[in-house]
């Protein structure tokens, strides 16, 4: 058992035992955004992407919209374990509003016959161990997950076979770090798009914005974009103040643009920084 797996199991147990109070300890089981609306505004064909992992939906959608390669990061290492769990559910044609049932998860785990990579194999061990500690009621009572009723999952309905095919050859690189770490992060790659959903807006101090800027700048290719979505608080005065501060931090190197992806019922706001 690798050190990472031991650490992840320990971390999950500390969450289940209420001994962990990290702000981002709970895993989003599925997106809380209408990502099809956002993604239909972007040209991802053949692009290299870095995305916050969270529920994995940004990663799945990036591939469905033609990305060449998608790497991912998250401050919460358990999001990478969720990526595999959702992948197996998708392989089994299971996708539901609000994650899926405990029985489905157990059945899928028990029937897993083959894993393709060490990460996948270890994730299977992770879920078997953690679910044996969780039991059905913990599963439904949001101890480890932020389970969201999600009408947007219906987008996948006729795309599951395609997504399952794509995921069979995808082996994402995952970085477990805080993008606002002022000690820096270690990635020697450049991306056409970086997706941050509720990342900068949750990390609001000048110090963390400066650190995020320094970490992100070398990762963005020429004319590349940092897309910040799910800005539900756009009309909120507090948020506008933080956004003004954030724009100042990014303005020398990036062009800011506020975008509205239109939908008759619910327009979504997002903004992007394009590297000058
Ligand atoms: C509110 S969730 C975003 C959910 C998203 N709308 C989705 O569709 O999945 C924010 C995610 O960003 C991660 N996160 C927040 N701040 C971060 C940081 N400074 N560095 C890395 N990841 C961070 C959290 O762990 C969480 O997975």
In short:
The protein is 39% helix and 18% strand.
* Count of extended strands: 9
Count of all domains: 2
Ranges with pLDDT <50 over ≥5 residues? none
The biggest sheet amounts to: 7 strands, mixed
Cα radius of gyration in angstroms: 19 Å
**First and last CA, distance:** 45 Å
| Content-based structural category | alpha/beta
The average pLDDT is 91
**Helicity, as a percent range:** 25-40%
The quaternary state of the protein chains shown equals single chain
- Give the ordered list of helices and strands: HEHEHEHHHEHEEHEHEE
State the strand order across the main sheet: 5-3-2-6-7-9-8
In DSSP terms (H or I, runs of 4 or more residues), the helix count works out at 9
Tell me what portion of residues adopts beta-strand conformation: 15-25%
Ions, cofactors and other ligands present here are: S-adenosylmethionine
- Overall, the morphology is globular
Structural features, described:
This protein is α/β, with parallel strands linked by helices and 276 residues long. The protein folds into 2 domains: 3-175, no CATH class; 177-275, Rossmann fold. Helices cover 39% and strands 18% of the residues. Strands 5-3-2-6-7-9-8 form a 7-stranded mixed β-sheet, with helices on one face. Strand 2 (48-52), helix 3 (57-64) and strand 3 form a beta-alpha-beta unit. Helix 1 (3-16) packs parallel to helix 6. It starts with a helix and ends with a strand. The model has no long low-confidence stretch (mean pLDDT 91). S-adenosylmethionine binds next to strand 3.
